[in-house]
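TASK: fixed-backbone design
INPUT:
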């Protein structure tokens, strides 16, 4: 059992060398690990931890992918809201400048 755990840990550590993982990939891996652990715990209670880990891993990976994607969408939405606020402020300044220019033109003889 210890050899299996060591092999999995070394595989995970070595597979990430030189690559940058996307948020979705990180979510999938985290979900898979957590799902496998929870599945193994439930499987142990029912008498077959290996089967529980095999069933829990893919289910956890799916949940991890969905969670990571929803976080990405939320962050994009916040960034767009910030940009919209900045553009609104810039537009207000430009409108005020146009009003000032129009007043000056009308006041000139």
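OUTPUT:
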């Amino acid at each position: 059992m210890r050899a299996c755990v060591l092999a999995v840990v070394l595989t995970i550590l070595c597979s990430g060398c030189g690559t940058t993982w996307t948020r979705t990939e990180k979510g999938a891996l985290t979900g898979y690990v957590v799902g496998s652990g929870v599945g193994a715990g439930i499987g142990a209670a029912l008498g077959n931890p290996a089967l529980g880990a095999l069933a829990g891993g893919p289910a956890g990976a799916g949940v991890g992918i969905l969670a990571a994607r929803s976080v990405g969408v939320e962050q994009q939405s916040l960034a767009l809201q910030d940009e919209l606020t900045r553009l609104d402020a810039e537009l207000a300044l430009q409108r005020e400048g146009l009003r000032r220019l129009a007043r000056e033109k009308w006041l000139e003889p």
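COMMENT: The chain is about 90% helix and 0% strand.
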